[in-house]
């Protein structure tokens, strides 16, 4: 009886794993411009690629569908690393042609905390040159085995290659893993390594000034002059001033400093305030009124160093 059950299980697995793409598309390659798209995720939210890229790099993970055992294993592997990806300032997104309710099931059974998008009729997959037609024998196996048409909501016998891309903030593909043999998958550690290198390279001309001193003279000479000049003269592609420690109290009470910081914001300097520090000195609401971005407690300054930023503390 046990042997019979094992045989049946093996046959079901073989059905899902059959049909290696013989005439598969090749997929977009490194250096190509990533086509923009807007798709709904498992929560019904619209997700736009280029809006995500404004926050940092994006890791795009195509999977064939929740019916694919290898895809589920791969998604779980990425789920285990999603915190590392987020710490690098990147966003992980999964895409497949399966219907929204199927995407919800896939996200729930694999406990995925990242966005799982439904690409109706493989429209986006085609733009990335990932979609291929199943041969008649394989299409028949898929339909009888688990009902491919019920997963995708159409009778098109096609699936995407399970590709993995890393796209930089300018929309350029910097890492691509696409293989016509869909049993070959990207190594998650290689993805993290390539993402780390990308982040460090792109951030090495970005400056973060951590202002912790409550000495007004230090404020005048360093915090209010150097970042301003750096941004104006393009010494750095991006300058961020972090309000940390006692400086939070000083800024909240000094209207002259507030005015100068406003000028810096106009020049493109990003200003962030440590929420824990603001709470400690009772000035959280005041800093919010000044429209400073909040530095979450879960975003320690060490993360800037990890991402390759130039960090100066004063």
Describe the protein.
The structure is a single chain. With 314 residues, the chain is α/β, with parallel strands linked by helices. It folds into 2 domains: 2-201, Glutaredoxin (3-Layer(aba) Sandwich); 204-313, Hypothetical Protein Ychn, Chain: A, CATH 3.40.1260. It has helices at residues 2-17, 49-53, 69-87, 100-109, 123-127, 136-145, 148-152, 188-203, 216-223, 226-232, 247-253, 255-266, 275-280, 284-289, 302-306; strands at 38-40, 46-48, 58-62, 91-96, 115-118, 131-133, 158-160, 164-167, 173-177, 206-211, 238-243, 270-274, 293-295, 310-313. A hairpin with a 5-residue loop joins β1 (38-40) and β2 (46-48). It is elongated. 36% of the residues are buried.
Question: What is shown here, in short?
Answer:
Helices cover 44% and strands 19% of the residues.
**What top-tier CATH class of the largest domain fits best?**
Alpha Beta
Please report the distance between the alpha carbons of the first and last residues: 73 Å
Q: Give the name of the CATH architecture of the largest domain.
A: 3-Layer(aba) Sandwich
What count of domains describes the coordinates?
A: 2
H/E element string? HEEHEHEHEHEHHEEEHEHHEHHEHHEHE
- The CATH superfamily of the largest domain is known as Glutaredoxin
CATH topology of the largest domain: Glutaredoxin
The quaternary organization reads as single chain
Name the helicity range. Answer: 40-55%
Counting helices, strands and paired strands, the structural category is alpha/beta
Radius of gyration: 24 Å
Largest β sheet strand count, sense and barrel closure: 5 strands, mixed
How much β-strand is present in the residues?
15-25%
Side by side, the strands of the main sheet go 5-4-3-8-9
In DSSP terms (H or I, runs of 4 or more residues), the helix count works out at: 15
Shape: elongated
Low-confidence stretches: 1-19
Strands, total number = 14
Average pLDDT over all residues = 86
């Amino acid at each position: 009886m046990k042997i019979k059950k094992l045989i049946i299980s093996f046959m079901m697995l073989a059905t899902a794993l059959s049909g290696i793409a013989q005439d598969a598309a090749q997929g977009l390659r490194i250096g190509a411009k990533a086509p923009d798209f807007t798709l709904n995720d498992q929560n019904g939210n619209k997700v736009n690629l280029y809006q995500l890229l404004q926050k940092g790099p994006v890791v795009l993970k195509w999977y064939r569908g929740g019916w694919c055992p290898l895809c589920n294993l791969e998604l779980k592997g990425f789920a285990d690393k999603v915190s590392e990806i987020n710490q690098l300032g990147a966003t992980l997104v999964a895409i497949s042609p399966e219907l929204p309710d199927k995407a919800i099931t896939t996200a729930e059974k694999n406990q995925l905390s990242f966005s799982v998008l439904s690409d109706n009729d493989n429209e986006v997959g085609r733009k990335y040159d990932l979609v291929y037609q199943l041969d008649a024998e394989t299409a028949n196996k898929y339909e009888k085995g688990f009902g491919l048409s019920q997963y995708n909501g159409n009778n098109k016998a096609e699936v995407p290659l399970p590709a993995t891309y890393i796209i930089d903030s300018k929309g350029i593909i910097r890492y691509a893993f696409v293989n016509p043999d869909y049993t070959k998958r990207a190594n998650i550690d290689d993805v993290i390594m390539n993402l780390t290198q990308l982040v460090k390279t792109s951030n090495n001309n970005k400056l973060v000034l951590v202002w912790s001193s409550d000495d007004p003279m230090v404020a005048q000479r360093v915090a209010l002059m150097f970042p301003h000049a750096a941004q104006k003269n393009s010494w750095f592609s991006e300058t961020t001033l972090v309000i940390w420690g006692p400086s939070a109290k000083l800024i909240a009470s000094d209207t002259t400093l507030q005015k100068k910081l406003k000028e810096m914001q106009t020049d493109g300097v990003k200003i962030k305030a440590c929420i824990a520090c603001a709470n400690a000195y009772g000035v959280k609401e005041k800093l919010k009124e000044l429209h400073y971005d909040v530095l979450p407690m879960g975003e320690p300054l060490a993360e800037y160093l990890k991402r390759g930023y130039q960090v100066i503390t004063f």
